[in-house]
Amino acid sequence: MKISVIIPLYNKASYIRRTLESIFAQTVPVFEIIVIDDGSTDNGVEIVESGYVNDVKLLRHDSNQGVSTARNTGIKAASGDFIAFLDADDYWQPQHVSVLYQLRQKYPQANVLCAGYEFYDGLSHRAFRNMHLPKDRGVIDDYFKACCHADLPITASSVCVAKTSLDAIGLFPVDIALGEDQIVWAKLACSETVAFDASLTVVYDLSASRGKEFLKDKTLPSPHTQILTTMLESGAVPDGLHRSLEYLLHLTILNCVKRNLQIGNKKYAFELLRKHELLCWDKYRVLAFVCLMLPTALLNKVFSYARNFR
Questions:
Q1: Phi/psi zone of residue 170: left (φ > 0), alpha (ψ -120 to 50 degrees), beta?
Q2: Whole-prediction pTM value?
Q3: Which of 17, 120, 146, 163 has the lowest tally of Cβ within 10 angstroms?
Protein backbone atom coordinates (compact mmCIF):
# COMPACT_ATOMS: atom_id res chain seq x y z
CA MET A 1 0.00 0.00 0.00
CA LYS A 2 1.40 3.36 -1.11
CA ILE A 3 -0.31 6.33 0.53
CA SER A 4 -0.57 9.70 -1.17
CA VAL A 5 -1.59 12.47 1.22
CA ILE A 6 -3.87 15.15 -0.23
CA ILE A 7 -3.96 18.57 1.49
CA PRO A 8 -6.23 21.31 0.11
CA LEU A 9 -4.81 24.68 1.12
CA TYR A 10 -6.84 27.87 1.27
CA ASN A 11 -5.77 30.68 3.60
CA LYS A 12 -4.39 28.41 6.31
CA ALA A 13 -0.94 29.94 6.67
CA SER A 14 -1.17 29.79 10.46
CA TYR A 15 -1.62 26.02 10.43
CA ILE A 16 -0.01 24.48 7.34
CA ARG A 17 3.43 24.10 8.92
CA ARG A 18 1.96 22.14 11.85
CA THR A 19 -0.01 19.97 9.43
CA LEU A 20 3.01 19.11 7.29
CA GLU A 21 5.28 18.51 10.27
CA SER A 22 2.76 15.99 11.63
CA ILE A 23 3.18 13.97 8.42
CA PHE A 24 6.97 14.05 8.59
CA ALA A 25 6.75 12.89 12.23
CA GLN A 26 4.97 9.64 11.29
CA THR A 27 6.57 6.42 12.49
CA VAL A 28 5.79 4.97 9.04
CA PRO A 29 6.45 7.30 6.11
CA VAL A 30 3.90 8.07 3.42
CA PHE A 31 4.56 7.64 -0.30
CA GLU A 32 3.99 11.28 -1.28
CA ILE A 33 2.47 14.55 -0.09
CA ILE A 34 0.44 16.72 -2.45
CA VAL A 35 -0.62 20.23 -1.44
CA ILE A 36 -3.18 21.96 -3.64
CA ASP A 37 -3.23 25.73 -3.25
CA ASP A 38 -6.81 26.73 -3.99
CA GLY A 39 -6.23 30.41 -4.70
CA SER A 40 -4.94 31.42 -1.26
CA THR A 41 -4.47 35.10 -0.55
CA ASP A 42 -2.24 34.68 2.53
CA ASN A 43 1.36 33.42 2.68
CA GLY A 44 0.57 29.73 3.07
CA VAL A 45 2.08 28.89 -0.32
CA GLU A 46 5.28 30.71 0.56
CA ILE A 47 5.56 28.64 3.74
CA VAL A 48 5.26 25.43 1.72
CA GLU A 49 7.70 26.59 -0.95
CA SER A 50 10.32 27.88 1.47
CA GLY A 51 10.38 25.00 3.90
CA TYR A 52 9.15 21.92 2.06
CA VAL A 53 9.93 22.42 -1.61
CA ASN A 54 11.83 19.12 -1.87
CA ASP A 55 9.34 17.06 0.12
CA VAL A 56 5.97 18.21 -1.19
CA LYS A 57 4.35 18.30 -4.60
CA LEU A 58 2.68 21.72 -4.81
CA LEU A 59 -0.18 22.23 -7.27
CA ARG A 60 -1.95 25.54 -7.82
CA HIS A 61 -5.36 26.82 -8.80
CA ASP A 62 -5.41 30.36 -10.19
CA SER A 63 -8.58 31.10 -8.21
CA ASN A 64 -10.53 29.59 -5.34
CA GLN A 65 -12.54 26.66 -6.74
CA GLY A 66 -13.62 24.95 -3.53
CA VAL A 67 -12.34 22.08 -1.45
CA SER A 68 -13.90 19.36 -3.62
CA THR A 69 -12.15 20.58 -6.77
CA ALA A 70 -8.89 20.89 -4.84
CA ARG A 71 -9.17 17.34 -3.55
CA ASN A 72 -10.01 16.05 -7.01
CA THR A 73 -6.96 17.82 -8.46
CA GLY A 74 -4.80 16.06 -5.87
CA ILE A 75 -6.39 12.66 -6.44
CA LYS A 76 -5.83 12.86 -10.19
CA ALA A 77 -2.17 13.80 -9.67
CA ALA A 78 -1.52 11.10 -7.04
CA SER A 79 0.77 8.17 -7.77
CA GLY A 80 -0.12 6.11 -4.71
CA ASP A 81 -2.78 3.40 -4.70
CA PHE A 82 -4.38 4.78 -1.50
CA ILE A 83 -5.36 8.39 -0.80
CA ALA A 84 -5.25 9.83 2.72
CA PHE A 85 -6.87 13.22 3.18
CA LEU A 86 -5.68 15.83 5.65
CA ASP A 87 -7.19 19.29 6.01
CA ALA A 88 -4.64 22.10 6.22
CA ASP A 89 -5.69 23.04 9.76
CA ASP A 90 -5.81 19.52 11.23
CA TYR A 91 -2.92 17.23 12.10
CA TRP A 92 -1.98 13.60 12.72
CA GLN A 93 -0.47 11.93 15.74
CA PRO A 94 2.79 10.07 14.91
CA GLN A 95 1.16 6.61 14.77
CA HIS A 96 -1.64 7.48 12.32
CA VAL A 97 -0.14 6.00 9.16
CA SER A 98 1.02 2.94 11.07
CA VAL A 99 -2.56 2.37 12.24
CA LEU A 100 -3.78 2.60 8.65
CA TYR A 101 -1.27 -0.03 7.51
CA GLN A 102 -2.26 -2.34 10.36
CA LEU A 103 -5.93 -1.96 9.44
CA ARG A 104 -5.24 -2.87 5.83
CA GLN A 105 -3.24 -5.91 6.88
CA LYS A 106 -6.02 -7.15 9.18
CA TYR A 107 -8.84 -6.35 6.74
CA PRO A 108 -7.35 -6.70 3.23
CA GLN A 109 -10.84 -6.52 1.74
CA ALA A 110 -11.32 -2.99 3.13
CA ASN A 111 -10.78 -0.17 0.64
CA VAL A 112 -11.82 2.45 3.18
CA LEU A 113 -9.72 2.82 6.33
CA CYS A 114 -10.45 5.26 9.14
CA ALA A 115 -9.19 5.99 12.63
CA GLY A 116 -10.44 7.69 15.77
CA TYR A 117 -9.97 11.39 16.30
CA GLU A 118 -10.21 14.10 18.90
CA PHE A 119 -11.46 17.67 18.83
CA TYR A 120 -9.25 20.59 19.82
CA ASP A 121 -11.00 23.87 20.66
CA GLY A 122 -7.86 25.93 21.22
CA LEU A 123 -7.69 25.06 24.92
CA SER A 124 -8.28 21.34 25.38
CA HIS A 125 -8.79 18.05 23.55
CA ARG A 126 -11.92 15.90 23.60
CA ALA A 127 -12.12 12.41 22.14
CA PHE A 128 -14.89 11.87 19.62
CA ARG A 129 -17.87 9.91 20.91
CA ASN A 130 -19.58 7.16 18.96
CA MET A 131 -21.20 4.18 20.64
CA HIS A 132 -21.93 2.42 17.33
CA LEU A 133 -18.31 1.75 16.36
CA PRO A 134 -16.03 -1.15 17.34
CA LYS A 135 -14.39 -0.47 20.69
CA ASP A 136 -10.97 -1.46 19.39
CA ARG A 137 -10.80 -2.40 15.72
CA GLY A 138 -13.26 -3.83 13.23
CA VAL A 139 -15.53 -3.36 10.24
CA ILE A 140 -18.31 -0.75 10.24
CA ASP A 141 -21.34 -2.79 9.16
CA ASP A 142 -23.82 0.10 9.08
CA TYR A 143 -22.15 3.42 8.37
CA PHE A 144 -25.41 5.38 8.46
CA LYS A 145 -26.37 4.04 11.87
CA ALA A 146 -22.90 5.03 13.07
CA CYS A 147 -23.69 8.63 12.04
CA CYS A 148 -26.78 8.83 14.26
CA HIS A 149 -26.69 10.53 17.69
CA ALA A 150 -22.90 10.50 17.65
CA ASP A 151 -19.83 12.23 16.32
CA LEU A 152 -19.33 11.18 12.72
CA PRO A 153 -17.36 7.97 12.16
CA ILE A 154 -15.36 9.53 9.31
CA THR A 155 -13.82 12.98 8.92
CA ALA A 156 -11.82 14.22 5.97
CA SER A 157 -8.60 14.02 8.00
CA SER A 158 -9.16 10.55 9.44
CA VAL A 159 -9.87 8.50 6.30
CA CYS A 160 -7.75 6.72 3.72
CA VAL A 161 -9.36 5.34 0.55
CA ALA A 162 -8.23 3.19 -2.36
CA LYS A 163 -7.78 5.42 -5.40
CA THR A 164 -9.72 2.96 -7.56
CA SER A 165 -12.68 3.26 -5.19
CA LEU A 166 -12.65 7.05 -5.44
CA ASP A 167 -12.47 6.83 -9.22
CA ALA A 168 -15.43 4.42 -9.24
CA ILE A 169 -17.74 6.90 -7.48
CA GLY A 170 -16.65 9.86 -9.59
CA LEU A 171 -14.48 11.59 -6.96
CA PHE A 172 -15.88 14.53 -4.93
CA PRO A 173 -18.96 16.38 -6.21
CA VAL A 174 -18.10 19.94 -7.21
CA ASP A 175 -21.61 21.32 -7.69
CA ILE A 176 -22.60 21.64 -4.02
CA ALA A 177 -21.01 23.82 -1.34
CA LEU A 178 -21.93 21.87 1.81
CA GLY A 179 -21.89 18.18 2.72
CA GLU A 180 -19.81 17.13 -0.28
CA ASP A 181 -17.57 14.92 1.84
CA GLN A 182 -20.62 13.22 3.41
CA ILE A 183 -21.79 12.24 -0.07
CA VAL A 184 -18.42 10.61 -0.78
CA TRP A 185 -18.34 8.67 2.51
CA ALA A 186 -21.95 7.56 1.94
CA LYS A 187 -21.24 6.29 -1.57
CA LEU A 188 -18.17 4.44 -0.36
CA ALA A 189 -20.09 2.91 2.55
CA CYS A 190 -22.64 1.54 0.07
CA SER A 191 -20.02 -0.10 -2.15
CA GLU A 192 -16.93 -0.84 -0.06
CA THR A 193 -15.86 -2.47 3.19
CA VAL A 194 -15.03 0.19 5.79
CA ALA A 195 -12.49 -0.75 8.48
CA PHE A 196 -12.08 1.30 11.65
CA ASP A 197 -9.47 1.60 14.40
CA ALA A 198 -10.45 3.39 17.60
CA SER A 199 -6.95 4.76 18.26
CA LEU A 200 -7.09 8.56 18.52
CA THR A 201 -4.59 9.40 15.80
CA VAL A 202 -6.15 12.55 14.30
CA VAL A 203 -6.72 16.03 15.75
CA TYR A 204 -9.63 18.01 14.34
CA ASP A 205 -8.93 21.66 15.13
CA LEU A 206 -12.28 23.32 15.82
CA SER A 207 -10.64 26.61 16.68
CA ALA A 208 -9.21 26.82 13.17
CA SER A 209 -12.37 25.85 11.31
CA ARG A 210 -14.99 27.64 13.39
CA GLY A 211 -17.18 29.55 10.97
CA LYS A 212 -19.79 32.29 11.07
CA GLU A 213 -22.85 30.19 10.29
CA PHE A 214 -24.77 31.46 13.31
CA LEU A 215 -24.64 35.00 11.93
CA LYS A 216 -27.18 33.97 9.27
CA ASP A 217 -30.86 34.72 9.74
CA LYS A 218 -31.86 31.35 8.29
CA THR A 219 -30.13 27.98 7.95
CA LEU A 220 -31.38 25.81 5.08
CA PRO A 221 -31.13 22.01 5.00
CA SER A 222 -27.78 20.87 3.64
CA PRO A 223 -27.94 20.11 -0.11
CA HIS A 224 -26.28 16.76 0.47
CA THR A 225 -29.59 15.45 1.85
CA GLN A 226 -31.04 15.68 -1.66
CA ILE A 227 -28.20 13.59 -3.08
CA LEU A 228 -28.60 10.94 -0.38
CA THR A 229 -32.36 10.84 -1.00
CA THR A 230 -31.70 10.29 -4.70
CA MET A 231 -29.36 7.44 -3.81
CA LEU A 232 -32.17 5.81 -1.84
CA GLU A 233 -34.70 6.24 -4.63
CA SER A 234 -32.34 5.00 -7.35
CA GLY A 235 -31.42 1.75 -5.58
CA ALA A 236 -27.81 2.79 -4.93
CA VAL A 237 -28.18 2.00 -1.22
CA PRO A 238 -28.15 -1.68 -0.13
CA ASP A 239 -31.48 -2.82 1.29
CA GLY A 240 -29.99 -3.43 4.73
CA LEU A 241 -28.94 0.22 5.00
CA HIS A 242 -32.22 1.83 3.93
CA ARG A 243 -33.75 2.28 7.36
CA SER A 244 -30.63 3.72 8.95
CA LEU A 245 -30.09 6.19 6.10
CA GLU A 246 -33.72 7.31 6.27
CA TYR A 247 -33.34 7.92 10.00
CA LEU A 248 -30.05 9.77 9.46
CA LEU A 249 -31.78 12.07 6.98
CA HIS A 250 -34.50 12.66 9.57
CA LEU A 251 -31.87 13.64 12.14
CA THR A 252 -30.11 15.87 9.63
CA ILE A 253 -33.29 17.89 9.08
CA LEU A 254 -33.84 18.06 12.84
CA ASN A 255 -30.31 19.42 13.18
CA CYS A 256 -31.28 22.15 10.72
CA VAL A 257 -34.32 22.85 12.91
CA LYS A 258 -32.00 23.11 15.91
CA ARG A 259 -29.70 25.58 14.17
CA ASN A 260 -32.63 27.81 13.27
CA LEU A 261 -33.84 27.70 16.86
CA GLN A 262 -30.36 28.72 17.99
CA ILE A 263 -30.39 31.83 15.81
CA GLY A 264 -33.96 32.68 16.79
CA ASN A 265 -35.69 31.84 13.51
CA LYS A 266 -38.58 29.93 15.04
CA LYS A 267 -40.84 30.58 12.06
CA TYR A 268 -38.64 28.65 9.66
CA ALA A 269 -37.95 25.97 12.29
CA PHE A 270 -41.71 25.50 12.61
CA GLU A 271 -42.12 25.24 8.83
CA LEU A 272 -39.51 22.48 8.68
CA LEU A 273 -41.01 20.61 11.63
CA ARG A 274 -44.51 20.82 10.25
CA LYS A 275 -44.04 19.53 6.73
CA HIS A 276 -40.53 18.47 5.71
CA GLU A 277 -40.85 15.19 3.82
CA LEU A 278 -37.71 13.63 5.32
CA LEU A 279 -38.98 13.88 8.89
CA CYS A 280 -40.65 11.01 10.70
CA TRP A 281 -42.48 11.17 14.01
CA ASP A 282 -40.36 10.36 17.05
CA LYS A 283 -39.63 11.87 20.44
CA TYR A 284 -37.02 14.23 19.02
CA ARG A 285 -39.49 15.81 16.64
CA VAL A 286 -42.00 16.22 19.45
CA LEU A 287 -39.31 17.78 21.67
CA ALA A 288 -38.43 20.17 18.86
CA PHE A 289 -42.02 21.43 18.83
CA VAL A 290 -41.74 22.00 22.58
CA CYS A 291 -38.52 23.94 22.05
CA LEU A 292 -40.41 26.41 19.88
CA MET A 293 -42.00 27.75 23.05
CA LEU A 294 -38.71 28.41 24.89
CA PRO A 295 -36.66 31.64 24.75
CA THR A 296 -33.67 31.47 22.40
CA ALA A 297 -31.15 32.22 25.16
CA LEU A 298 -32.48 29.36 27.27
CA LEU A 299 -32.49 27.01 24.27
CA ASN A 300 -28.83 27.67 23.60
CA LYS A 301 -27.96 26.86 27.20
CA VAL A 302 -29.95 23.61 26.97
CA PHE A 303 -28.30 22.62 23.69
CA SER A 304 -24.84 23.38 25.07
CA TYR A 305 -25.52 21.27 28.16
CA ALA A 306 -26.99 18.38 26.16
CA ARG A 307 -24.01 18.27 23.80
CA ASN A 308 -21.71 17.38 26.69
CA PHE A 309 -23.78 14.29 27.47
CA ARG A 310 -24.28 12.85 24.00
A1: left
A2: 0.93
A3: 17
